[in-house]
């Protein structure tokens, strides 16, 4: 992160208007994109109705009004609380969320044809989305400066470890589909790992801001790569053990990979040393092999990955997903006209093959491109952010999305072994949706701080927008 | 519903999805170029301001009695150093381009800045590693300071003096 290039021009200490890259607010552009994203979400919903029932769904106005109200509430909050925030993040998220609800609704219709009594997932998904947007607004209103989170470095780390351990407790933890990552409190079930993801990013960022110098500078040089010192290996070993613990005790390959990968990338970004990637990669290889040898769950997954058609009775999920995508072809069957419900969990883990079946490769590439833009905006925020803590958080959150989408898409397309992770904003599942909305709020808060022009000094006081609005709190002392 | 209508809906929807993706990309594009335009505009503004300043040069800003004139370092390795405020805005840091250069391990290369706006003096942290403190609190925004307000940076304490 530090600018080590000797050729870098020496900057004028005064951030005059010539030297600064002035960002505009772009709220109008955000509104324009939001209208398009609503058209994408509601268009999918209407198209599902047309495809399955031959007419636009009867509750179109209720659903459309609800979705529009949620998105507008988020937009107005940004206008008032984070006027300089990135204009592309919210529309992307709104479009993905709308697409997800439409597809879940589509699969609900198919499930209810077989059995009219099954619960409609789309309704609960919409309720979770409402909760997510409310938390999104709460974060933007209550958290005025992301640097305040730095005070909670160790609290966040501790909280994350507790949340990760919760599903292992006998009373509330529950095994679902082989993975022990759920907790049940009365009628509510929750995946605490999704919240832990966010807390871990905050904890890593706070820790690395403090110790990155010692992690970056000391070390031995072996074959063009600076290897870190033995005594600095503590944190990476601790994280490795935690990831391995998740893999062994909770049978959750996906989260294990996600947490360790995120930590490794943040470590690399903070120290600029590829040596950490070498050490981490070696540790990961050892851990993965150990997991493969000990956990039967993992062996099974690898077998289904290498040869799904050799296990037609057990690997139905992968096989059906692959056939579905093949049937969808280049432009898909059309929304509501395929049969994605034949794949188990086609509304959550396998929602991407469902899109592949009904929207084809063209649609899936658009969706993956949307994720790429989301990650790009997060990394862009990290680049322009002025403080190291914000840089690291934005990088970490961007990497979380990138890794999660890679693991899910790679899993369902048989590029890597299948692991149970949710597709952000698309999959049915409340914990994931709510946690991801909070992550987006945090990214917007950081990007607002990063893009907001610094108050200009040494000019007439009446053209000082910086002091007039709430960006600058003038602290009176004495 | 006929095959044709369904086909039209299918392709229409894919077109809409891609329209959204391309619109998002074009907003990213204008975000970059828009920033440059804003910079050029502000350069033009600055030229205008410089012209206006040329006219107004005849009557310099009067320093009133009671206004701070220099910064004094009270404690730390550079104790006793005083720097005139006439060169404001003053950069504080360990770097060679800093107006108030502190030889303190806890100070960043470009640590903080003291600047004036109207009659009021402000101190602003420039994203330093160890922070800038006024009293017990670490400042996160440009913060107003007056005569005798102690600013702590690393092991160094400084204040505005008459």
Shape call of chain A: globular
Strand order of the largest sheet of chain A: 1-2-3
Which stretches of chain A are low in confidence, meaning pLDDT under 50 for 5 or more residues running? 1-20, 456-472
Q: What's the pLDDT, averaged over the residues of chain B?
A: 78
Helix content of chain A: 55-70%
Q: What is the succession of H and E elements of chain A?
A: HHHHHEEEHEEHHHHHHHHH
The number of E-state strands of chain B comes to: 11
Mean of pLDDT of chain A: 82
What structural class do the secondary elements of chain A suggest? Answer: mainly alpha
Rounded to an integer, what's the Rg of chain B over CA atoms?
Answer: 26 Å
- Any idea what the radius of gyration of chain A is? 24 Å
Question: How does the major sheet of chain B shape up?
Answer: 6 strands, antiparallel
Distance between the termini of chain A: 38 Å
Q: What is the succession of H and E elements of chain B?
A: HEEEEEEEEEEE
Helix count, DSSP H or I runs of 4 or more residues of chain A: 15
Q: Give the helix proportion of chain B (percent range).
A: 25-40%
Count of helical regions of chain B: 1
